[in-house]
Amino acid sequence: MLPSYENDRDLARIKVIASDMDCTLLDDEGHMPADMPRRIRALNDAGILFCAASGRPSYTLSEMFPGLEREMAFMSDNGAAIFYRGELVFKDLIDVDAYQELIRFTLADGRGMPTVCGIDACYIRSCDKAYDATFRTFYKKIVYMDDLTELTADVDKYTVFFPENDGEEVFAETYRDAWSDRYSVTNAGKMWIDVMNKGVDKGSGLTRLCAHLGVDVADACALGDTYNDVQMLETAGHSYLVANAEEHMEGHAKWRAPSNNDGGVAQVIDAVLAEAR
């Protein structure tokens, strides 16, 4: 069992707090802890940057933090795009021919639905519109197309949706061996397989953000719960796994935070703010 975050004696050194969203910052109902805007502003006033680090796109994250874009950072699409105080400071696009190859692979496999993540919108087949309510939880801007093989938009992440929650099994059986030599491939929970360019993940995203700020990653804090948080947890000097995470994630973090339903991220932020005063 990991020791509690309360055993981290160097909280006063933290300059960046990067938190995953689903099942980490957000509770099981998809709600943030109460008073998060005040906490983010308090961090900003203390010279500490809060970063939402997610597989979600930037336009969705922006809607989740209204009025706060210029007081925080967004690491969207698992690190494929980074926004700092409202400015895009990094993006890594997948070549059109490459994501078209991935689309054809998914369609031939037949077990998932391609959701192609562009910088400005998510592109989904019209025949998959029955899952619109689920898609819009993550993608606030969706373009439905009859034929995704005609798509030529700027894309920074390719995602496959598995409505039967069998994404982990399909990843282990097929996607990992088929694509990991060419791309960063990971699960984002049981419903999603995410594919980014090689070297793109939340860990490299945190490194890039810290370099942009002139901050050592040793003075960064990361909070997460699942596979696509692994590199970020292993990169940050202060890494906290929320208590609701699966046991296999324990080897990737130094400390444990309370669960998402107990506002674990908020409790860590409060502890950091207490040391910053």
Beta-strand residue percentage: 15-25%
Strand order of the largest sheet: 5-4-3-2-1-12-13-14
How large is the count of helical segments? Answer: 9
State the order of secondary-structure elements, H for helix, E for strand. Answer: EHHEHEEEHEEHEEHEEHEHEEH
Structural class comes to: alpha/beta
Helix content range of the residues, please?
25-40%
Apparent shape? globular
Kindly report how far apart the N and C termini lie.
31 Å
Radius of gyration: 18 Å
Beta strands, count: 14
- Mean pLDDT, nearest integer? 96
Low-confidence stretches: none
Taking the sheet with the most strands, its summary is: 8 strands, mixed
List the helices and strands and how they pair.
Elements: E1 16-19, H1 21-25, H2 36-45, E2 49-53, H3 58-64, E3 73-76, E4 81-84, E5 87-91, H4 96-109, E6 113-118, E7 122-125, H5 132-138, E8 142-145, E9 155-161, H6 167-179, E10 183-187, E11 192-197, H7 202-213, E12 220-224, H8 230-235, E13 238-242, E14 255-257, H9 264-276
Parallel strand pairs: 1-2, 1-12, 2-3, 7-8, 12-13, 13-14
Antiparallel strand pairs: 3-4, 4-5, 6-7, 6-9, 9-11, 10-11
Helix pairs in contact: 2-9
Structural notes for this entry:
The protein is of the alpha/beta class. Helices cover about 30% and strands about 25% of the residues. The protein is built from 9 helices and 14 strands. The protein has an 8-stranded mixed beta sheet, sandwiched between helices.
Provide the descriptors you would attach to this structure in a database record.
alpha/beta; 277 residues; 8-stranded mixed sheet
